[in-house]
Design brief:
By secondary structure, the chain is an alpha+beta fold. The chain folds into 2 domains: about 5-180, Jelly Rolls (Sandwich); about 185-294, Arc Repressor Mutant, subunit A. The chain is built from 12 helices and 11 strands. Strands 1-8-3-6-10 form a 5-stranded antiparallel sheet. A 4-stranded antiparallel sheet has the order 2-7-4-5. Strand 4 and strand 5 form a beta hairpin. Helix 5 (about 185-190) packs across helix 6 (about 195-200) and helix 7 (about 210-215) crosses helix 8 (about 220-230). The protein is globular, with a radius of gyration of 20 Å.
Amino acid sequence: MVANLNQETLTAMNLKLLAVQRTVAGRWWNFKNVISPFSRLWLILDGRAVVAHHGRKFVLQPGQLHLVPPFTIHDCSCSRRLDHYHLHFVARLPTGVDLLSLLDFDFAQAAPADAIEHFRRLEALFPERKLPCFDPNRNEYRRFPVEAEQVSGKTSPVDGFEANSRIGLLLTPFLNSAQEHEGAHARATRLFLSVQEFIHARMHEKILLADLAGVARLHPTYFSDRFKELVGVRPLEYLMLRRIERAQYLLLTSRASVKEIAGAVGISDSAYFSRVFRELCRVAPSDYRAAHTG
């Protein structure tokens, strides 16, 4: 079982199915530098392909599940044919952070015997949940996650319950191999959950150190020191990290201007926003969008 991942965390996870379908890919399935704000789960039925991420190359083979977490830059290529099911989904905590971004796990797993039945049933439950296209550089693909989440929110409770149960079973082999990594998000989620939730709910607003300290019910100076000691960065540094990561999501999924996105994440000065974005992401916001959306 996952280290430090308790039942409360798993229960709080909000799964949303964005797309599920069976596809036979060919040589056209050849994309570089792909990054998306959702997870991809593939069940390989026949053929083979290669996907590269986290500094490794993985051969996709029949009988295998492969999971690519959100915001993971990856390349994929198929030399001949790949018959597979693919599932696109999010697994967010109340803090707005995706659970799978907090974990390290084995990305390739042997598929359980009932995996294909779960995919078939999910496709039967949501026959309309298809990708608008397969090219991640096209605008309709870029807008798809936001539109799909809106549709997902209208799912009937019973269908949603079944879908979440089946996705959970498909994720179980990965969770069994997982370890919570020591990134700032994992530490903040574990130690300052209420602060994480406050940031998520009010990111578009001006937030002061005193506001975050008040949520933690600590004196601002003591809170800042304690947060730094336990999380590794100061609270306002962490807040900025969350703002920039939200901006990455908006750059990938919307056509809003850089100035509009800066305002949406609570930074009124777009020039300052661009400067901080460049410092943290090593690229300007407009270049980040161009590199990952075509």
